Structure formats: structure tokens, C-alpha cells
Sequence to fold (460 residues):
Amino acid sequence: MAGWNPFKRKAPTKAARAETQAQPSIVKPLIREAHRRANDAGGLPRFNTTASDQMSGRGGDRFSAVRAKLRHAFTPSQPVADRRLFAGRDDVLKTVIRAIEDQRLHVVLYGERGIGKTSLLHVLSQAANEARYIVVYTSCGANSNFDETFRAAAAEIPLLFHSGFSPTAAETEKGSTLADLLPSEPLSPRKFGDLCAKLTGTRVLIILDEFDRAESGSFRRDVAELIKNLSDRLGRVQLVLAGVAADLTELVEHIPSIRRNIFALRVPKMSEGEVMQIVANGEREADLKFDSQAGAFVVEVARGSPYIANLICHHAGHAALDQGRATVSPVDVASAVDRAILEFQGRIPTPAQTQVRRLFDQGRQDALAMSARAALAADGVFDGRDIETANEITARKAQDAIEVLVGERLLRPVQGEDVNQRYAFVEEGLPTLIWMMWAQRNLNREAPPAAPARTATAVS
Fold:
């Protein structure tokens, strides 16, 4: 066996060569194709666009240009930055602008994740920029503090607008900002407020997005103190805070007198018409068409959430293009629900998923679906009345659903001042996952799913 090489090919015998030559003519083209694929990596999946968002010219299909537009039309993982794609919310935006412009109030926007707060802030910023406001946008983090946040804001405000400096002053001409006037010691709300009181000839919006992520109690107190200071000094600087659903009360409790200086607005769910506007915007931008049943199914699945609407439309559009169609049908929306479920599953602990699937398999899906529907309509915290309203069922059936899920430890009681006990799912993402699973199992892939059972029978 010395010198034996198992990978060394033996020369074919005369009989083998004859057999190969006698093979049907179809074999040779297949062999040539195999060689081509072996020598060409084009058979593997490729990116269709380059990092500069240009078509790569390789690995695409006849819908490559439509795919590129589709990525821009529906952006579930990013806020809307293009005003042409901003759907609905006209009344909300108008109300916020009036509060800022006419009443000179500071604004607090709150609501559940994915409801469109950041998109609203982007469009508000663009409108304010058009009106020559100086807009400073900051996304808060767990370690946000007053000194760092407002020094950065001061650096965005030109010294040109400080009443103590003329336009021809040396400091102004070299592009200095308010930050150049700040002391080296930690910045206080009073010091920043005093500086803002000397602004003239402009107005400033300081936007603090995701304010609820800030863990520092002193940061919250300092922001509340600044609001009071700016309001008392008739400052030309206004704050817009977003994402503080659980913290508005705490903010006001620090300094109760600032209540009259704040306009607080809960960003509501989208109406069915507004969700359809998301679909229509995407159709226009991506050169796609959603047939009427597909559009109706998107509305039903989204439950007023712009995030879910964008996610479903994004996946459904790609599903249609994968099948060589530029028209999205209900079967494509069904495929999008399947993909969305896979995404949500990765965000929820396995034990909770297992419990939910067991209840579905046992035929107890109505308790899950009705409670999830109520949770999605009420920003996650709900009671029996919310289940009644969301599903048009009796109080007894709503209470039965709660008892089933409390017994399964999928719901937890929430402390509050309401007379009725309120509840929340043990995992924040469970209502959305449950609703998607319900749609998946009740979808006949021909038409929108029927609503959860609304009879007066007891939940099993």
C-alpha cells in the first residue's frame, strides 16, 4: 500500500470511455453547466446593491430595481426620515406644532414601542428647520447626564444669537457657540437656563428622544428644573421629550408647578385609513401593487402599529418579487406573517413561547388572541373592560380569558390606582407574537383572517 493516494484519479478504461461517449446528449450540457458553476461563484447568493446603494450589476433579477425601492419604501427597522413616506399623524403633528409655536410649551410625547414616536420627531424636526428653528436632536441612553447632554446642545447654538455679542465680534466671526461660554465645572440647569435667556433672533428645539432609557434620577430632576427655569425666564428654547410613558408623572412630581408648562400627548394607534396610507405610500415609491384583499389583511394584522405594518409590507413585497410578480396578494402577506413570527421568536424566552404554543395546540387560542388584542390596543397594560371593548365580547368571557392566562403565568398583575385590576403579559413582545401566531393559524391565504371568536361561550 506504500504510496497509495485515495484521491488520485485513475485513467478511465477503454470500456468506460466508450460508455461515456454512448450517454444521451443531455448529459454533456449538464456536465458543462456543472463545470460552469464550479468555476463561477455566481451561483451563490449575492448582494443586489453596493454599499453606496447602487445596483451591483451581478446576481440580480428583473425586479432588482424594484427591490431597491422596496427597501426604501418600507423600513420597519428604522424611523421614517423621508416626509413623502410619513403616513397619517397629520392631526398629531399639527397639535404638537401649535403647542410649540402658539403656546410656547415644552412637549412630552409618549406611547408604546413601534408606535412611531421617533418618526414623528424626525418630521417635526424637518418642519422646525424649515421655520428656521435651531434643532438639536439627542437620543438618550442609560448613562445620560445633564452636563454632557446640554453641553452638546450648547455646541449646536451659534454665538451669533447671543445678545451680548454683535455679528461682527471676533468670537462670532470665528464660529464660536454657546458652549464656549460655559464654565469648566459641571453644568447646572440654572446656568444653562441663564445662558438660553440671552438668546435673540432665533428659537431652539432640544429634542430628547428615548428619555425613558435614562436611568439617572438626578438627570430627570435637572431636566424638570430646566423646564421650570426656561419657562420662568421666557427663554427661546423649548424641550421636546419622547418615550416617557412611565415617567411623565415622575417628571412632574419633581416640580409640580411645571405641569402648566408641559403639553403631554400619548401617540395613538394608527387608524385603518392611516395604515392603508403606509401601504399606498409604499406602492407609489416601490412600483408595487397590493391587491385589495392583501391590503385589508395588512390592516388587520397591523392593529394600528406602523412598525408591524411596515414589517409585513416589507416581507410581503419581497415574497411577491421572489415569485416573479409585482402585485402583492394575500398569500404573500401570509408568507410575511411567517417571516415576522421567526423574527419575534428570537426576542422572547423559549419557556414563554412553549406555553403559548401549547395553548394554541390545545385549542385555547381565543384567550390568547383576545388578550393580545387588548394589550396591543392599550399600550400593554389592560383590564377586563379593555378585552371586552377590543373584542366585543361579554364581561364574563373577558374575565375567563384573564383567568386562563393568569393561571398559565402568562399575565402578571400591574399595580395602579384604578379600581379594576390591570394586567400585562410577562414578556413585552408576547402580545405581538401571539397576534401574529393567531393570524398565521387563522389565515386561509386567500382573504384576511376572521376576527377572534366573539360569542358569549366560555373560554376553555
In short: The beta strands are 106-110, 134-139, 204-209, 237-242, 262-266, 289-290, 327-328, 411-414, 422-425. The longest helix spans residues 306-322.
